[in-house]
Amino acid sequence: MKILDRLKNINYLNLLKNPFFLVGLIFVFWITFFDSYSLLEHRVINKEIDKLEGNKEYFEKEIEKDRQSIKGLKSGDATEKYARENYYMKRANEDIYIVEFDTIPAN
């Protein structure tokens, strides 16, 4: 209760005339809004860091999937199947027919 009583008795006009208080207030204002390391800039940077960490987790999962795919492609049959499906490769005695569907909706 003594602290609250002291706060009530402070003459705020004298506080605003105090050069140390004014310099400190200007310093806090400058650091908060205008400095290149301002709190607002830190907030933007922290949001970007969170976004990039989410991307990192996604790409780490994708890398693990690709590693599993590469392990699966070690055998000759799996490599041949992959090449035939994705690169339309064929054996010497066969023909490949590519069927494309029309994606324009009918009215």
Provide an overview of this structure.
The chain is mainly alpha-helical and about 110 residues long. It has 2 domains: about 1-35; about 40-90. Helix content is about 70%, strand content about 0%. It is built from 5 helices and no strands. It has helices at about 1-10, 10-15, 20-35, 40-70, 75-85. The longest helix is centred in the middle third of the chain and has 34 residues, at about 40-70. The mean pLDDT is about 85. Keywords: Membrane, Transmembrane, Transmembrane helix.
Task: Give the arrangement of secondary structure elements.
Elements: H1 2-8, H2 12-17, H3 19-33, H4 39-72, H5 76-87
Sum up the structure in keywords.
single chain; mainly alpha; rod-shaped; transmembrane helix; Septum formation initiator; transmembrane; FtsL/DivIC; membrane
Q: In which range does the helix fraction lie?
A: 55-70%
Shape: rod-shaped
User: What's the total count of β strands?
Assistant: 0
Query: What fraction of the residues are assigned to beta strands by DSSP?
Result: under 5%
Largest pleated sheet:
none
Oligomer class: single chain
Which consecutive residue ranges, at least 5 long each, have pLDDT under 50? none
Following the backbone from N to C, one meets helices and strands in this order, namely: HHHHH
Classify the secondary structure makeup into a structural class.
mainly alpha
